[in-house]
Design brief:
The complex is a heterodimer of chains A (174) and B (560). Chain A has 174 residues and is α/β, with parallel strands linked by helices. Helices cover 22% and strands 19% of the residues of chain A. The radius of gyration of chain A is 17 Å and the shape is globular. The complex binds protoporphyrin IX containing FE and iron/sulfur cluster.
Chain lengths: 174, 560
């Protein structure tokens, strides 16, 4: 079963990801059972039918706009943000926006080209679930990679995981 | 200057540990080249022609003598005995071995230094006025603000993978000495009419293949909000900057595409959410940081030291150096000294380990133990007593660091070019040295007066050729190295982008071309007119005529 880092631990995860093929519209809907992430377009086309379905998440690609989910967040349990390449940093802003501006409390999952050397940044921006591609890391490597969540113990700036900057958190001597 | 507290030290130490592990995994084959590249770049590590090249951060150009000694030690122990001062006030080593880079970073961490974010698509080292705190025309000292921004930008989790690199410069004086108009964000520190401290914010400047002068998006952001305002700019850029084409990914392209008014609207819409939030600066934090930049223990001295005046009268070589490389200091009896790294025998900006050790020693004896690096690739001792200038000059001269040409034609800004850089179209260092050799007569150079000549080995413009009064750009024609010449560029308050004068030249022609340009200037100039002002007044035609001859002008007119 695919692995997922959730709240700092490696767990098994059964969620499936629905993807539209090239040229395929979001109209047709045949959904597998169980926990599932659907693309933004599918969610938008079938909002009524999908709302409240247990274990339903929506996934967005890096060029899709989280602002479009603003009115829907109460009916979505989880949002996955795709990193098509790990150097595409848009999802960091997307996650931070979901947490801060839109107050989203559900799971935010990093998917796609997700590498351990970015775990720390992801966690700081509000990702509580991190899912490297299947096969990217062996089970042992993934356990080892948890260390990257703790690369830095006391960051300077405010972010989602630590909403106060160091200068407000600590009494620093001049 | 700023000294680390245990928090600062821990972050740098943890970085060393992180990079040590990343390097280990890379060498063990666990990280691919593509995966390792951004990691090493964010540690200033490029892989170049000969070896990896390590760029060490010098935040806003400020170094302690202890740090300078460490750089000397690194140059000697891990490199080939020299270092290079870059146009972004950083220090570069050209020959370190990849597997020992973690060792070098550990050495740097021992003296409160690092290579964090000196490269890569992130917020880079923040640059500033090399005369901060000592210039007479300063409104406010930019250094505490640079430090506040340095801490904010270090490992900012949201902005580690921007569309492209991001450079911020801060200036706090009447004269812009930090090229703020050619940065992604340029900040002018000032007071408003009510006496409040804040920043004029420019955005979207840059050089590279599309040189653009930054535009003002806010005339005055009060100091409390400077972090949240920067975050708003960066968030808009991170979300909407182009990622499909490396050459169109800088913020300047986004600002141009949207127009500055629309860009500003988006930024201020974003800012409305962050403004007054946790990142709002506190008086206590600014005071804490500013306390590191106290005025040194200056003596009360006469404005004109009598000995200094007689030494100049007695020694023409000293007088020449004093005239060019010694600048007015805001405190009576003190002077700012530029230690030139433009010795014609070496690459502009290069300095040996022995010279670094000497500079550290002089800093301790004469200048409160501090040194500054300039974007013009020189070093500065900012607080020298006039009475000590002669002794310092004798030592600097003996060490090859007293070339008396600051601000003159041969004080060339020059990128590493084809000798070191894998992206180069052409070499740049030999061109600089050939021009320096041609113009070796000091009286002639002084007669030509203030002139900035900048050379880049390719369109990336690391050598600032766009803003050189004379700019030289290496171009590739069928695999051969050629050089294109532009005139009329300038940095500072009247920043402008130079215009190309015509077809390019072979390397061997370059000294003659520069001679011809200088001849035209000397024939055309009005009394006391600087080179750049002549170019602005006459336009390029007289220079084209002088360089290409009558035939080229007629031919061009016929084609027009
Ligand atoms: C040898 C390795 C180097 C490489 C591969 C390199 C690469 C680049 C590239 C690709 C750009 C263009 C960026 C853009 O327009 O988006 C650039 C710009 C620049 N680089 Fe370098 N560079 C190198 C060394 C240096 C050095 C040694 C300096 C300082 C002496 C330097 C200073 C700059 C500056 C000031 C710019 C212009 C920034 C701007 O466009 O606003 N670079 N470099
Ligand atoms: S301008 Fe071009 S040749 Fe010069 S250092 Fe930059 S990338 Fe290399």
């Amino acid at each position: 079963m695919p692995k997922l880092i959730k709240n700092g631990r490696v767990i098994d995860d059964a969620a499936q990801f629905l993807a539209l093929d090239e040229g395929q519209g979001p109209e047709a809907l045949s959904l597998p059972d169980g926990p599932l992430f659907v693309p933004l377009a599918v969610w938008q086309a079938h909002r009524g039918a999908l709302s409240g379905r247990a274990g339903l998440g929506v996934w967005l690609d890096s060029n899709e706009n989280v602002d479009e989910l603003e009115g829907d967040l109460d009916s979505i349990g989880a949002i996955a943000l795709n990193f098509p390449k790990f150097t595409d940093g848009r999802a960091y802003s997307a996650a931070a926006l979901l947490r801060s501006r839109y107050g989203f409390k559900g799971e935010i999952r990093a998917i796609g080209d997700v590498l351990r050397d970015q775990f720390f940044f992801m966690q700081r921006c509000g990702f509580d679930a991190i899912q490297p591609k299947a096969g990217k890391y062996s089970d042992a490597q993934l356990e080892e990679a948890l260390a990257s969540l703790k690369d830095f113990s006391t960051p300077y700036q405010a972010a989602i995981d630590q909403p106060e900057p160091l200068f407000r958190r600590a009494q620093r001597a001049a | 200057m700023y000294r680390y507290d245990p928090y600062d030290q821990k972050i740098v130490d943890e970085r060393v540990a992180q990079f040590r592990d990343q390097t280990r995994r890379y060498l063990a084959g666990e990280l691919t080249d593509d995966e390792f590249r951004p990691l090493r770049l964010q540690n200033g590590l490029y892989v170049q022609r000969h070896a990896p090249m390590l760029r060490v951060a010098v935040p806003y150009g400020l170094l302690s003598s202890t740090q300078v000694r460490k750089l000397a030690h690194i140059a000697r122990t891990y490199d080939k005995g020299y270092a290079h001062i870059t146009t972004r006030q950083n220090v570069q080593f050209n020959w370190p071995e990849l597997k020992i880079v973690p060792e070098i970073l550990a050495e740097l961490a021992g003296v409160e230094m690092h290579a964090i974010q000196t490269s890569g698509a992130c917020i880079r080292n923040i640059t500033s006025d090399p005369f901060a705190g000592v210039a007479g025309d300063e409104y406010l000292d930019p250094r505490p603000w640079c430090e506040v921004l340095r801490q904010w930008s270090t490992f900012h989790p949201e902005f580690a993978f921007l569309p492209r690199k991001f450079k911020i410069a801060v200036n706090g004086a009447h004269q812009d000495r930090a090229v703020i108009q050619c940065h992604d964000i340029g900040l002018e520190l000032k007071r408003d009419a009510a006496g409040e401290i804040g920043f004029r914010v420019l955005v979207g400047g840059g050089m590279g293949r599309t040189p653009i002068i930054g535009e003002e998006i806010n005339a005055f952001v009060p100091w409390q909000h400077i972090i949240t305002y920067n975050e708003a700019i960066l968030r808009v850029y991170n979300r909407h900057g182009r990622r499909d084409n490396l050459y169109k990914a800088r913020i300047k392209i986004l600002v141009k595409a949207l127009g500055v008014a629309e860009f500003k609207r988006q930024v201020e819409e974003e800012w409305a959410f962050g403004k007054d939030g946790a990142n709002t600066l506190t008086e206590a934090e600014v005071a804490r940081v500013a306390a590191h930049f106290t005025t040194p223990a200056y003596e009360t001295l006469p404005g004109e030291d009598a000995g200094y005046a007689s030494q100049r009268a007695a020694n023409t070589a000293f007088a020449a150096w004093a005239r060019r490389n010694v600048l007015a200091h805001k405190v009576p009896g003190y002077a700012i000294v530029v230690l030139s790294l433009k010795n014609p025998a070496t690459a502009p900006g290069d300095i040996t380990a022995e010279q670094l050790d000497l500079v550290a020693e002089w800093a301790d004896i004469y200048s409160f133990g501090e040194v500054r690096a300039t974007h013009e690739q020189n070093l500065v001792l900012a607080d020298v007593k006039q009475a000590d200038l002669f002794a310092l000059w004798e030592k600097a001269r003996a060490a090859g660091l007293a070339t008396p040409t600051f601000g003159l034609l041969t004080d060339i800004i020059c990128c590493p070019g084809g000798d070191f850089c894998a992206l180069a179209n052409a070499k740049s260092i030999p061109i600089a040295n050939a021009i320096q050799a041609r113009f070796d007569d000091l009286d002639y150079l002084y007669d030509i007066g203030d002139l900035e000549l900048n050379i880049s080995g390719c369109m990336n413009s690391c050598g600032h050729h766009h803003v050189g009064h004379i700019g030289i750009l290496g171009v590739d024609k069928n695999g051969e190295e050629w050089y294109q010449v532009s005139l009329g560029g300038a940095q500072g308050n009247h920043t402008s982008i130079g215009k190309v004068i015509g077809r390019s030249f072979a390397a061997a022609e370059m000294p003659d071309v520069i001679s011809k340009i200088i001849d035209v200037y000397r024939a055309q100039r009005l009394d006391g007119e600087r080179f750049i002002d002549t170019v602005r007044r006459t336009g390029l035609d007289p220079f084209k005529l002088g360089v290409y001859g009558e035939a080229a002008i007629i031919e061009r007119k016929q084609h027009a």
